């Protein structure tokens, strides 16, 4: 994939004059409405909205739609993407726990492969990305946000990788993108404790870049960040980003099967199933 991106960058360099003339249009992510895409004709920036009520938990279908959307943004030579949510209180509740509870082998495999795809495409995207975090963002929700290059979070919500609180470890690609944002010290402390940060705490520690008053404000701030790249060569920008993230991307690309097998092994452990079952019940009892 990295080789493909570099080839794509080279092709873009050759055809950069015609690229600049291209104006993107709105497009949909596919048959379902789990991901809405709205492209601003003037700026070329796409607002991608997760739309799986009630909490945008990431199941196979949502991940597949998101993956297709990321493909379309790349092939449309997007000027930038803002990731947000249609919910008023939740950005994303993370991975859909029901995908991991009493797992069905083929579906679990497809589910984890779709998550790997989304991570590789989002973390390694050539276009600039920002997350307008307009609600709680635990675990896999936080993962989507930290794959982006900039995060603006609406006040009074929480964000973090809380996997250890569920009795599981955050997978290695979650950890590498977390460490890309936080210092190793802060990342270790937060990951081992499973810390969920308030918006203010997240700002203080550097997990988010700005605080917003509401969703519109967060999108506006993300847009301002993305517009800064108007002054920068898109080729040079993308190449720099991908060079910085190359090791993390290669680590997963070269070990996808091993990572998948570790996931399947982990979720099939009786103790993990027991923990997930109890967690689902605790969410329902709230
Ligand atoms: C042991 C060593 C192993 C080492 C190897 C590692 C290999 C890998 C192992 C596997 C890794 C797996 C990685 C997982 C990462 C994840 O993302 S796990 C998901 C973690 N998510 C959470 O903990 C969030 C849980 N949800 C909440 O905290 C809250 O729902 C919320 C704050 C997001 C929203 O609160 P609220 O608005 O009050 O809504 P609720 O009433 O709580 O929920 C509404 C509804 O949605 C259901 N739900 C919530 N979250 C999820 C979810 N993640 N998945 C599925 N369903 C969810 C909730 O149960 C409610 O359902 P009902 O309406 O009651 O039916």
Automatic annotation (TrEMBL):
Record's protein name: Enoyl-CoA delta isomerase 1, mitochondrial
Assigned GO CC terms: mitochondrial matrix
Keywords: Acetylation, Fatty acid metabolism, Isomerase, Lipid metabolism, Mitochondrion, Transit peptide
Keyword 4Fe-4S in annotation: no
Quaternary structure (record): Homotrimer.
Reactions catalysed, as given in the entry: (3Z)-decenoyl-CoA = (2E)-decenoyl-CoA; (3Z)-octenoyl-CoA = (2E)-octenoyl-CoA; (3Z)-dodecenoyl-CoA = (2E)-dodecenoyl-CoA; (2E)-tetradecenoyl-CoA = (3Z)-tetradecenoyl-CoA
One Pfam assignment: ECH_1
One GO biological process term: fatty acid beta-oxidation
One MF annotation (Gene Ontology) recorded for this entry: delta(3)-delta(2)-enoyl-CoA isomerase activity
Pathway note: Lipid metabolism; fatty acid beta-oxidation
Signal peptide per UniProt: none
SUPFAM superfamilies hit by this protein: ClpP/crotonase
Annotated localization: Mitochondrion matrix
InterPro entries noted in UniProt: ClpP/crotonase-like_dom_sf, Enoyl-CoA_hydra/iso
Function statement: Key enzyme of fatty acid beta-oxidation. Able to isomerize both 3-cis (3Z) and 3-trans (3E) double bonds into the 2-trans (2E) form in a range of enoyl-CoA species, with a preference for (3Z)-enoyl-CoAs over (3E)-enoyl-CoAs. The catalytic efficiency of this enzyme is not affected by the fatty acyl chain length.
